[in-house]
Amino acid sequence: MTRYLLRRLASTIVLLFVMAAFVYVTFYALPSDPAVLVCGKGCGGGQLAAIDHKLGLDQPEYVQFWHFLEGIVAGRDYSSGPDVSHCAAPCLGFSFQNDQPVLSLIGQRLPVSLSLTAGAMVLWLLIGVSAGVLAALRAGRFTDRAVTAASMLAYGSPIFVSGMLLLMLFCGYLHWLDFPVYVPFTEDPAAWAKNLLLPWFTLAIAQAAIYARLTRSGMLETLSEDHIRTLRAYGLRERRVVGKHALRGTLTPVITITAYDFGYILVGAMLTETLFGLPGLGQLIVQSSNNVDLPVVAGLTLVAGAAIVVANTAADLLYAVVDRRVVLA
């Protein structure tokens, strides 16, 4: 187990390095002069040269890449004549628009996106896995057809449509909820959950449909395997066969997909955040892309990639807990 953990840690570090190199080439090496993006088209040659020197753009590419990695690991200094700005590790640079540290901008938005993603993930796992198991156990019957039809309808509904319907129903018609406003969990946990209820369900509806279909197919395949038939032949109760043995084998692909979805939705829930006015990372990446704020977009890309890599490592470790047939070799 220790050797496996060390190998996973080493492969995670290599993946993060490759991802950092990809982000650097994509956002800093390929675009046109970043100094023009910082200063604007009206800047003269002297101002552009000063910005090039401050950002280190007047140095060879390999030196720039080294400073980029150095900033992430150990921090970095930006010098502009006598003025020196220190960016603490992990340094993702400064925003072109407001000159604030990118990490600070991400840190301000991260609690909102984490709240949205974690709550929605709990809902789509509960609804999707439960519906998938129920459909598999009632395969070919009315319940199976009803779950299949509901899944197709939910998956085919765009987020802005399902979100608008929920807003009109619960805020406009029934008046059960006010229009959502983000309240930090540390200030009022009850208000935090109440205001995130509609965004959670909006984000979870389409995802739950995918997990229901995935769980149904996995459960049907597992129930047809020899060891399940053997357990039934020994007279084990159906609840124990399904809950303890069949479900474990079914959850392995669900864990894998959940790891990918968590990292992707953490930064990519821009439609939900925009619809409900939540100041999260998705809203930040839309604003930064519109303003061609390369350091912020690059920093968000790194955060999303790192979240996916870390979540996949955690998923690999969970395999052995969920399914004992998985051997960590």
From TrEMBL:
Annotated localization: Cell membrane
InterPro entries: BPD_transp_1_N, MetI-like, MetI-like_sf
Membrane topology term: Multi-pass membrane protein
Name listed for the protein in its UniProt record: Peptide/nickel transport system permease protein
Organism of derivation: Actinoallomurus bryophytorum
Record carries keyword Transport: yes
Principal cellular location given in the protein's record: membrane
Top-level taxon of the source organism: Bacteria
Record field: transmembrane: 12-30, 118-140, 152-176, 196-214, 254-276, 296-322
Gene Ontology cellular-component annotations: plasma membrane
